[in-house]
Design brief:
globular, 239 residues, alpha/beta
Length: 239
Amino acid sequence: MTMTTRPRFVTALVIALVSLLAVSAGAQSAPANAADKDWLVTTLELRAGSVVGEIGAGGGELTFLLAAEVGEGGRVFSNELNKDRVEALRREVGRRSLAHVTVVDGRELETNFPDQCCDAIFMRNVYHHFGDPPAMNASLFKSLKPGGRLAVIDFTPPPGGEQGPGHRGEDNHHGITAPTLERELKAAGFEILSSEGKDRGVRVVARRPVTPPLTRGSTPSSARCEGPGAPADSSPVRR
């Protein structure tokens, strides 16, 4: 190797190592995925036959773990904004022959799930990226059955670094605090069931009320779960 080519080789190697470390840092380990899956199953009271949705599924690690929990009698709606990841998820669903998993094109302001379809919805390290929390939270509320649960796993920004919507993904402001998350969910009509924070981790569990008050002239919804191959039951979740 000549002196001319050696610096270029070293530079390329450093770039490759940095890229690899960045990818590794952004990925969840298998034990972390398993622990989050167990927490979600318990917190969301998932069982065989449950209908659950994931917002911002990424590589689908939790989607596939929970698909095994709800079984073929249940359903998983897996939402993702990135078009390449959507296609990759669909290929993997096909490879695994998971007829009860539906990959959904993500949208900035709505879940794109059927109305009053889900027993539970969850997301991991996604909420702080919402540019319009009121619009997205209204859609989450609408997608849940009465009594359905929402679980948000996220992380806090550096001390004093919390920003408003649209800026929570920026350097030195990355994340959201539990009080802010609770306040925004309550504003959308959710009941807060639990909230915890540890080592910059945030976990908030909320619920769509079982019997929300009707406004004048409104009638109870009879919406059904009409996603591809989805079960037709839209009865309230019994708690």
